Amino acid sequence: MKLSIFAAVFFALLNVSAVAKDDDYYLKTNKSFDIYGAIFRELNKNYVLEIDPEALMANGIDGMLSNLDPYTVFMDPSESEDIDIIASGSYVGLGISVGNRDSMLTVTGVYDGYPARESGIRIGDRIYKIDNNVILFEKSDNIRKYTKGAPGTRVDLWLIRDGRADTLKYTITRREIEIKNISYYGLAASDIGYIKLDRFSRFSANEVKLALNELKNKYSIQGLIIDIRNNPGGLLDAAIGISELFLPEGSEIVTTRGRNGSDEIIYKSRSSVHDTTLPIAVLINENSASASEVLAGAIQDHDRGLILGRRSFGKGLVQSIIELPHKSNLKMTTARYYTPSGRCIQRLEYTGKNGDKQVREIISDSVFYTKNGRKVYESKGIMPDSVIEPADFYSDFTVKLARTTHIFNFANRVAAQYDTLPETFAVDKRLLAKFKEYLTLKKFIWEPPIIETANRLKAIADSTGATREAVRLIGRLEKALAKDKKDPFELNFDELKKLLEFEIKSRFMAEPDLVKYSIANDINIRTSVNLLKTDKYKNLLTTGSNAGSRMN
């Protein structure tokens, strides 16, 4: 096992050498490997301190990959388990999802019917320690190595719950967790179906097919919303399988091309069982990536449905898993993918030498066209056909507040007061006043845009030597605005009430119930319903409409 990683790199480089067409490239490869191997041997043999050869080689691999894209990574046997999870659709664990909030490892989801929820763990809990490992400030990607284990084994968790003085200890028995790709499906309106798709794994296409059939047979839906907001992607095959449900047989879905355009593979719909007429709205945002963008791009380029929300992440790269010796793997970017119109939506370029990696946005003015002749663009992610920004529907005050973690953290404090949330719970003006006090303690500062503009105007006047009369007029304007300044909490009570109630209730409600609860207040879903029910849906899909237009 000592030389496992060394052997992995040896075989990987031999493969590169075998396919190299250029003699100079072949010589450079072997020369580099000779030098690398010589340094490795000398360090292990003669360095003043004893070196772990596996650790040394791991550092060497990190160096090799440091200037490449962030998706090309070496995976040791413990990390390679993630591949099996995607392939099998299940894993052994606790039934939670985690993220980093205020730099702390925080529970962001608790799955219904599994050990974590049964034990009382909630969204918002900070994971202080697992067994003997303090992990509060670790990255969320590291959580699996602490929670994995054999079914039936136990793990101790110490959690910090905002509003509680002491840490909470839970002893949880690991269990096999089935990954649910769809967290909820049902009706968004009387005749509009809704599917919340959270990931693209082995069984995603079949789950969407079953959900779609039930919605059509049970409710006779006249339109469908597919929600892939915050869906980071997954298996390419899953995105292709879902696209096949809505595109005619033979329709191009995506094309992948390797280095210099080699190894081109064109994926087309092979399914004869599909629905090519049901009006569709696909919801995306800046966290919709990879397989999500494959699906959205296929739907958009064939003018099969509308894409709504905010611009997607922009990941147009395809990774392949290369098996290495000793149960290790190399996840390597091997191709770019192209939507049916021919565009690659990859937004970022990764370059650099000697550990100096640079990341920049790709600039391109190339125009492509959908089936109906609408303009779409490459290197920009997927641009929605209609952009729906929070600022279009919420006040500046609410938008600024929602971009902080204050609502999330205050909800933790309120939820900590209850073992179970009363059915009659609602945010009232008294609770809002406490929220206002909390924000004051957290030094949240809010100035209406017009006052911020007046302050900047005064600063400009002071720095440029404006006349006394000008300075005096600006001063009068500031005083008038200050006198007219209204309490933003009073003005935006209804908006804040909805946001706070959702966050607080999310600590107690099962995920399907929470999604169902949120539908009525979700601007993106409401907008989608309205479009699917009007002629504007067809108008936006006709020739001459430009992808990326704003909602009016």
Structure description:
The structure is a single chain. The N and C termini lie far apart (63 Å). Mean pLDDT is 88; it is low at 1-14. A hairpin with a 7-residue loop joins β13 (252-257) and β14 (265-268). The protein has a seven-stranded mixed beta sheet, with helices on both faces. α7 runs parallel beside α8 (236-244). Helix content is 38%, strand content 22%. It is built from 19 helices and 24 strands. It is α+β, with helices and mostly antiparallel strands and 552 residues long.
Give the overall silhouette. Answer: globular
Nearest-integer average pLDDT: 88
User: Percentage of helical residues?
Assistant: 25-40%
Helix/strand/pairing class, anyone? alpha+beta
The major β-sheet equals:
7 strands, mixed
Helical element count?
A: 19
Q: What percent of residues are in strands?
A: 15-25%
What is the number of E strands? Answer: 24
* Amino-to-carboxy terminus distance: 63 Å
Q: Order of strands side by side in the largest beta sheet?
A: 10-11-12-15-16-23-24
Unreliable spans:
1-14
Rg from alpha-carbon coordinates: 27 Å
